[in-house]
Write a structure and sequence with these properties.
This protein is of the alpha/beta class. The protein has helices at about 15-30, 45-50, 50-60, 65-70, 90-95, 110-125, 130, 135-140, 160-170, 180-205, 230-240, 255, 260-265, 265-270, 275-290; strands at about 1-5, 30-35, 100-105, 150-155, 170-175, 215, 220-225, 225. A 6-stranded parallel β-sheet has the order 3-2-4-1-5-6, with helices on both faces. A two-stranded antiparallel sheet has the order 7-8. Helix 1 (about 15-30) crosses helix 15 (about 275-290). Bound molecules: adenosine-5'-diphosphate and magnesium ion. Magnesium ion (MG) binds near residues 16 and 43.
Length: about 300
């Protein structure tokens, strides 16, 4: 299995929308995809399940929070495979595809878990490696060996839970709006990731490699078929920087992206917006090509 994190410490840049569409697009191409919702706001979860399904069926026992249960007291991880849920509406859409889309839902209290584990780390710095290896260890479990790819939707911060995602990842995708403030953070995120990997490896015999990263421009405003001038200049600045962007960009389209979560079917499968669907498919191709070049985690 290959593990991809969709990460940016800024909110509202399209992480969740991208995760949902990439996951559904890869599944439509026959891949077995596991989504992980690491954001306590649960936007990814409620893009596939109704809020009632989440509250009644998933929150009590099937969430990412349960994956982290017991970590504070040093308990070993029991199999996280029981946390997986299959969203019915997408499952219907994928009937004729050999692909599969499953999700491990978010929990409202996930940000408390993050804070609590960070406090643990302050008191017991020697627990750095186990505290940051919970996702990595679990995703390597044989129960997940049948999945081709896991996509992790991160919360808009770079806390301990997001660092768990980085430690588990073979590739990082950084969605970014092409405006000055949004792009300003890319280099600082890159630096934090590099520092984290360095510290992890200094403390662990089981080394991790810094995952390669790619920027994906989202909410691009087009004039004709080109980005507007102000965005174009930001985009060229990033192209010249350290984290290369994908060639495919995602256009700004509130009318198409806004309603999709309520229907439980991402735009790429939903049949609305021809141009939007085309660019999402191109993005799935570009991600697939990139994944062909990176080695996955050994199950
Ligand atoms: N390409 C897009 N064009 C217009 N609106 C978008 C686009 N992608 C996402 N959105 C909307 O922007 C808001 C934030 O998107 P979201 O994916 O939740 O971002 P994040 O996960 O980074 O916080 C949502 O209301 C979503 O519907
Ligand atoms: Mg989100």
């Amino acid at each position: 299995m290959q593990v991809v994190s969709i990460i940016n410490h800024k909110g509202g840049v399209g992480k969740t929308t991208l995760t949902a569409n990439l996951g559904a697009g890869l599944a439509a191409r026959g891949k077995k995809v596991l989504l992980l919702d690491l954001d306590s706001q649960a936007s990814l979860t409620v893009s596939f399940f109704t809020p009632t399904e989440w509250a009644e069926q998933l929150l009590p026992a099937r969430t990412i929070k349960h994956w982290f249960d017991g970590l504070d007291t040093g308990e070993a991880l029991s199999t996280p495979a029981g946390l997986v849920a299959t969203p019915r509406r997408v499952h219907e859409k994928l009937r004729r595809s050999p692909g599969q889309l499953d999700l491990i839902p978010a929990h409202r209290d996930l940000s408390d878990v993050d804070t609590m584990l960070a406090a643990q780390l302050l008191m017991n710095p020697e627990r750095f490696v186990p505290l940051h290896s919970r996702l990595r260890a679990g995703l390597g479990h044989e129960a997940f060996a049948d999945y081709d790819v896991a996509l992790i939707d991160c919360a808009p911060n770079f806390g301990l839970v997001a660092r768990n995602a980085v430690a588990a990842s073979d590739l990082l995708l950084i969605p970014t709006k092409p405006d000055y403030l949004s792009t300003n953070g890319i280099d600082s995120l890159g630096l934090k990731i590099a520092q984290f990997v360095e510290e992890f490896n200094a403390r662990s015999d089981d080394r991790i490699t810094r995952p390669p990263a790619a920027v994906i421009f989202t909410m691009v405003q087009l004039s004709g078929d080109r980005p507007i001038e102000t965005q174009r200049s930001v985009m060229s600045r990033i192209e010249a920087g350290n984290v290369a962007p994908f060639a495919t960009t995602i256009r700004d389209s509130k009318a198409v992206y806004g309603p999709a979560p309520e229907y439980g079917v991402p735009v790429i499968l939903g049949g609305t917006g021809r141009a939007q669907t085309r660019e999402l498919r191109e993005l799935v191709s570009e991600v697939t090509e990139r994944l062909d070049g990176v080695e996955g985690m050994a199950a």
